[in-house]
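Hi there,

I know you've been waiting on this one. I reran it after we fixed the sequence typo, so this is the corrected version. Both the input and the resulting structure follow.
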Amino acid sequence: MRIALLAVLCLALSHAASAKEYGKYDPGRLLVVSETPAGKKRGIDVAYLDAMLSDLASHAMRYPPRFDSIEDRQRAARDVTALSGMLEVLANDPAANPELLVRLGMLHSMGHNLDLAGAAQKASVTFQRLLSASPSHPRGNYRYGMFLAGTDRAKEAIPYLEKALAAGVPEAAYTLGMAHLSLGNTEKALIHLDDYHRRHPGDADAAKFVEALRGGKVEVRREVVDAAPLGEADHGTYAVMNTKGEVTNKAFRVSRRDSEWILEDRKPDGSWAEATSEADCRLSVSSADDIQGFFSSSDLAEISPTCVHSKAFAFCAYSLRKRPKSRGYVFVALTEKPPVRLRLARMAPEKAAGPGAVGNVVPR
């Protein structure tokens, strides 16, 4: 879910203000080639890169992005794609500079806000790689915490933001306050937002926001894009798909009897055998904490699942966060560490699993 904070007084917060024009840049200027005794050495014009990143961040570092025109947004998306591609080439070096990885993580974060496919997963991978090698990196912790907070993972974001703040990144106090606010902890939110205001006394918008929050004039609204809970519409027969996206002969059917979910396994002779009759195999509705154990954080940035599970497996429906009305299905084997997710194809009631069945695009 995306999180929106609404000030009843329509405060003119900096991010909500009218956007300035996004500049015109030539990503090709970034590449610098110099001659060395060992041959040509390729590098990046860091000053030009940072100028582009600064402009991009003022428009797309937070969701929703703010641009003066559709053309500006489209140009920004092209620039993010081009810059990411260039930096990924340099980041392929196992000894890649941490500062390079911070910038690449920022680009992927903004790519996610600009609806670029796969950008959220790339951001997670980049930041995790950076912090695995440099766990105390101040801005790495800040940018990763900011990314997590912006993808509805405020609880995960808080430790990174706290580490960044302790390491001397004062801007982290604002994001930390907003993360606590999104979790409903107004008291902690005010502590950190007051801290931010003390560090940035000239930020009039922050002062207005803190005043409104203290006066009870700010509410947290969640734009709900969660998948609808499992129900009668999800009763049916499902076939497991292989890694090539082909439907296999492994099939099962799911239904609910009274208040219990039932899964029946199809036997080789075509008959059905209940797989959830034993105590350890009975299905129960999965909590949000359960679901976080079934999927990676990068998956949860892209999808919103709803599941039932036993000790051995989970059956989940999900919607794409950017397509809330979509519906897909996945089987999760919980006996493996980490859990193994298998794509499912929903079968028409009268058809058996086999070539030609329609599948769903789901996380691998």
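Quick highlight: The two ends are 21 Å apart (CA to CA).

Best,
R. S.
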